Amino acid sequence: MKTGERIPGGLTILVVLSVITLCVLAGIAGAGWLGFNFSDFFHVGEKETIRTLADYQAGQPTPTAFQPNPTQTASSTVIHLVPTATSPLLPTNTVAPIPTEVSIPASHYIAGVYGMPQMTALDCEARSAVDWARYFGISIDETEFIAKIPLSDDPELGFVGDLNGEMGQLPPDGYGVYPPPIASVLREYGLNAKAVKNMTYEDLQREIANDRPVIVWIVNLPFEIDRNFYTASNGNTVPVARFEHTWIVTGYNLSTVTVVDSEWTYNVILETFLERWAVFENRAIILQE
Q1: Cβ–Cβ contacts within 10 Å for residue 202, how many?
Q2: Hey, how many other C-beta atoms are within 10 angstroms of the C-beta on 63?
Q3: Is the pTM of this model over 0.85?
Q4: Which of 210, 38, 244, 184 is CA-nearest to residue 109?
Q5: CA distance 143 to 119
Q6: How far is it, in rounded angstroms, from Cα 289 to Cα 287?
Q7: Ordered domains of the chain (ranges, CATH)
């Protein structure tokens, strides 16, 4: 065809259609070849799919001002512990601690203990008991207290003789009463009084050091010691002495003992005190805790 000549319209359409047809066929053939080669190279299996970057990003939440990017958190895992058999714990033998001796102070004095005059010559035990009770906060009328003391020819069970008798006699005449009946009457007033015998001087000191006055049975001063033994009608034998008397011990030091004797308070030389207390086998009344 010469330059400048036009291609007929029908021929032009035919040429264009032919070119398009060839392009389509070429594309189909190329796609089939690529699919074959990718399939053989990656071989991911029939049920698996390969996720693209777009797929991954679409599955994540988009961070906003109130929702930060997700972070990995540890999932809770329940662990079941299977107990294992163990031997039971058996008590072990332990050595009990040996109590240590509490040191006794060299001296101690109790404040606030005072006495009143006796009503009769032989009511010293009742007078001491009422004065002793007052220190512990119990007010007792002495006449009422005396009325509660039983009578007996055994001083361990009650008052021996006539309360209004003369001093210096021995049972069964007007004499006095020993700790058990006095402690029993004191307990009626709510005081945990305890009658004791053969009390050591160290135990006496401990009571005083703990601010607990002690009623003691002694041979009164300044009379000589005249010790005897007496057997009551019930067969009980007890030591007796003329001028049997009671004091309230309220203090001590290395050489003396402080006592309340009715309305008087004074110091007694330690050796003298111990000698006169021993006549009655160190009988006393203490406040039991």
Answers
A1: 9
A2: 10
A3: no
A4: 210
A5: 9
A6: 6
A7: 110-287 (3.90.70.10)
